Structure formats: structure tokens, C-alpha cells
Amino acid sequence: MSTVNVFDQKFSIDEEQKNLIEEFSFFDDWTERYEYLIDLGRRLPEFPSEYQVDEFKLKGCQSQVWFTGQNVEGKLVFQAISDAAIVSGLIALLMRVFSNRTAEEILSVDLKFLDEIGLDTHLSPTRKNGLNSMIQAIRNRAQNDIKREATQV
Amino acid sequence: MKDSKKTFDPNQVQEDFPILGQSVRGKRLVYLDSAGSAQKPAQVINAVSEVYEQEYANVHRGLHYLSEQASSRYENARSKVASFINAEKDHEVIFTKGTTEAINLVANSYGRDNVKPGDEIVITHAEHHSNIIPWQLLRDQVGCELKVVPVDDDGGITIEDFKRVVTDRTKIVAFCHVSNVLGTVLPVKEINSLAHAHGAITVIDGAQGIVHMPIDVQDLDVDFYAFGGHKLYGPSGIGVLYGKEKILELMSPYQGGGGMINTVSFEKTTWADLPDKFEAGTPPIAQAIGLGEAIDYINSYGIEAIGDHELDVLNYAMQKLASIEGLKLIGTAPGKVSVISFTMDCAHPHDIATIIDQNGVAVRAGHHCAQPLMERFDLPSTARASLGLYNTREDIDLLAESLEKVQEIFK
After folding, report:
1. For B156, left (φ over 0), alpha (ψ -120 to 50), or beta?
2. Whether B287 contacts chain A with CB within 8 A
3. B185 vs B400: CA distance, rounded Å
4. What pLDDT, on the 0 to 100 scale, is given for residue B286?
5. Is the pLDDT of residue B115 over 60?
6. Do A84 and B348 touch (CB under 8 A)?
7. B369 is catalytic
8. How many CB pairs (< 8 A) connect A and B?
9. I want to staple A11 with a disulfide (CB 3.0 to 4.6 A). Which of A16, A109, B42, B168 is the partner?
10. Confidence band (pLDDT; 50, 70, 90) for A125?
11. B348 to chain A, minimum CA–CA distance in Å?
12. DSSP B238-283
């Protein structure tokens, strides 16, 4: 049995998006926002070393990102890590919204917090692409889960 | 021309580049990514617009006024390139879409015609992917061997390193004039003599070399010298392959199409003379003219004066950056030019680039299309600040200040 770090979820997806917007609204300047983002990244659960291999490396990111998703009792638990601190911070944001949710919940997310936390203008297009490929990977995983269930029925 | 040079004043030079006048996120733009692509002076931008406004038509095809105007300016640009690198003949200058296409042209044409199983192609460990992959593809097609000249710990590559690798079986020695990651300048003339002594030809990736120093292809005696327009303050989409006439004449065409033939029938087609044989299809017309204008711009100051100024800023930068705690310079070979790669203990290169971008400082972070070199130094990536003629010591001060901010944030 491989290691799974379940990301605690106390809030619904919408609540979590609101929380993130509120947390970031406390900062006036970009330095503080980045410091907070970096800090969130540093507090990500440890990424299992057996997944830190090429097979789990995400394409489309400029820095290295390892990503895995597992179904734990009907909920999808994602784990990811990057060698870059800002990307790890972005991963932490996505985990709070997406991890430990059902596939249906994940696919119905109206992702709005990214535009509202004041980081968007500071995220380079390439980095945004990396972020997009991470979001895409999360959605693909959810879709695969739904397909698998459908074939089992 | 030589007597009427303008005095090189870096602050004045910045005003030649409209894009440098803007602020980024409320800060003055400090552009330190010229090795990625250089900015364009108004003279080039205006020349390109003028082509489309006044003199645009396809070249070498029409007999009408505009076509003649465009053809004449296109060929004039070729002459400007030829004299910039001191080529003996204008038709030794082949226009391509960039350095990459120029190298691919040699690999596909000269390479396929001349390299046989058991032969060797020699490159260095410091090459850009565009001077690795074309030779790998050729190796896989013809079954030759690809040999790699190593890089020293300080980023240096010497003639001695080449002597240990080049043999009588070597057919092509392909190497960068200046490493795009390390800034190392390779001893082109000596390597060229060595290659010739073994009966091999040379292909020089001059993308980073042409920008910082005078190039005299006759004095260097190189067989091929490739470079792009966009790092030379000209447009993107235009590049140059210089090749010796006697070699180019024996080579097969690289691509087939309009403009590169003498006669065509279904049984047999005969090729046009140089340079048209290698310029199939409609070429990048305005871009070539823009490149010619960029060369005029460079000549107005003189490439020597530009190189001297860049060296002053480089030495200042190397000292300044070396004094930042936890910062490691990658590439410190003697005589290096305007490319400064570095890593920091506290932050990933991507993090460095993102943070200093908030201060309006533009650097590149990544593997710089040189993954084997990154592996050689056991690094996933580096941050890279690279200089153009418009950079000043003040730019370096702002870079250093921003890097100190990185330290604060990631402490």
C-alpha cells in the first residue's frame, strides 16, 4: 500500500475559495503575498518519494512538478510538489480547493479565486500555463474516475 | 563609414530603443534577456514598416516596380551582412529563418551528402539544442558517431579539449562561438585549423558570438557560420548561413520550391545558382531588410565600441553578483562575454526570475535549451542575466538590489 497523505478539508469548495480570497486580501503589497504563498508551499504535506519520479512528472510546467491522485474511500486525494517554491505555493492553493473531494465536486468547480487573490497579474503566462496544466491534470483524474465507475456499473 | 561613427553613450543608446522607455509594474524596465532575444532600435522598426508601406512585393519574381524595389533592398541587405562578416562574396550569405534552420540546412545537405557510416561528428557539451539535435538526426540517418568535447568546471573549453576528440575520421566539427549559458568564448580560429588538419569542415553556431565582437569569416577561415537576426537587434524570422562558395556549390538543395530552380520538368530539375539554390519559397523579405538596417545601426557605433561597453558592464556585474551571499556564478572562464548564469542557495531559478520581475528586472530562468550542459553541472536550471548594448552599470545595481530582495523573501 502506497503512502497517502490525506489533505484535511474542513470547508466546502466555495467556502475554501472565499477563504483564500480573504486571506490574500490582508496584504497590501506583492512582497507579502508572495511570502505568504511561499509559506503555504512550505507547509504542504511531504510528497512521497516513491512518486518523485519521471512517471509522475507533469508536462507543461517550466519547473519540475510531480503530481499524483488517488481515490480514498470515494474521494480524490491529490498530492503534488515542485522544486520551485512559488509553484509549490500555487499547488498548496489548488490542494485546498480540489483535494479530498468527490470527482463530481471537482468537475463542477467554478474556479474564481485565482483571479481575485491579486496574484494573477503577477503570474507569468508560462507559469499560468503550468498552473493550467495542473488544473487540467486534476480534472482529467476526476473524469477518469467517473468513467471507471460507469464501466463498473 | 568607419570615420563617421557616433560616440557610444549607453544612456543615449537606451533612447534608440522605444520599448526600453516603458515601465513594468510601475518600475523602470531593466531588460537582461538579450541572449534570449534583443530589443529593436527605432531605426529597425521604422525600416520594417517602411517596407510594408512603400516597397513591398515578392522578390525575384515580378518585373514590376515594387518587386524590383523590394528585390533590390533584399539583396542590399545580403551585401550588408556579407560585409559585416567580411564574406568574400555576397552569395555566400544564405538567408534562413534563424540559426536553427541554418544549422539544419548544413546537417541535411552537406551532412547527408558527405557523412558516411563510421565517420564522426564532433560537438561540445555546451551546445544549444539547435546544435545537438540536427547532428543526432543525421547520426541516426547515416549511422555515424557523435562525439562530445567536454566542458571544464569553470565553463572553459580549450583547443586542448578538442585535440583529444577530433580524429581523422571526423567529418564535421560543430560548436558554438559563445556558449548561451556560460558566456564562454571558444577559440574559433584554432579549432578551425585543427578540424581542417584532420580533413573536417567546421560549422559555427554564432548566435551569441556575432552580437558581441567583430567577425571576419575569411580571417577565421571557417566553412560555415550561422546566426539569427533577432539577437542582433534585427527582426525575428530571419537568420544567416554563411558558407564558403566552393562548399555551397557542391551541396544539394535543402528544400525544394519556388525560386530555387533553373529549369523544372518532371524528368529533371536543375538548380539555380547561389544563393537562390538554398532559398526555396518566398523568403522573409521585410525581416531581411530589417536585419540589414540592424547592421547599419550597429555599424553606426561600431561593434568594437559595443563589445568594449558590454565587457565593462559584464565585469562590473560579475564582481557585484559574486559578492552576494549564497549566489553561485556558473561559467567563469577567462575572456567570457555577456552571459551571466547563476543559482542561489535560497531560491529556485524560477522563483528568482518571478520575484525580480516584480521589480521590472527581466532575466531568463530554465535550462536555456542546453539540457546536457545543465546535467554536466548537476543543475535543473539556472537564472541567466544577459547583456545587450543598451545595458548599463545602473541596470546591474537594480539587478543586485532585486536579488537581495529574493534573499529576504526566501530567507
Report:
1. beta
2. no
3. 25
4. 98
5. yes
6. yes
7. yes
8. 42
9. A16
10. low
11. 5
12. -EEEEE-HHHHHHSPPSS--TTSEEEE-SS-EEEPPTTGGG--SS-
ipTM, 2 decimals?
A: 0.81
Least Cα distance to B166 among B117, B199, B130 occurs for B199
What's residue B1's pLDDT?
47
Cell triple for B278 = 538554398
Asked if B348 and A38 come within 8 Å (Cβ–Cβ), the reply is: no
Strands B361-362 and B30-31: parallel
Q: Residue B119 carries which side chain, given as an amino acid letter? A: D
A84 contacts on B by Cβ (under 8 Å) = 348-351
Q: CA of B366: which chain A residue's CA is closest?
A: A62
Of B347, B358, B381, the CB nearest to A30: B358
Q: What pLDDT is stored for residue A6 in this prediction? A: 61
- Considering only CB atoms, which chain B residues are within 8 Å of A38? 351, 409-410
Residues forming a β-bridge with B96: B239
Of B351, B381, B405, the CB nearest to A86: B351
Nearest-by-CA chain B residue for A121: B25
CB A76 within 8 A of CB A10: no
pLDDT score at A127: 61
Question: Which region among A88-97, A111-120, B224-233 has the lowest average model confidence (pLDDT)?
Answer: A111-120
Chain B residue with CA closest to A31: the answer is B409
Q: Which residue has the higher pLDDT, A133 or B395?
A: B395
SS3 B334: coil
Handedness of CA B21, B26, B28, B34 (dihedral sign): negative
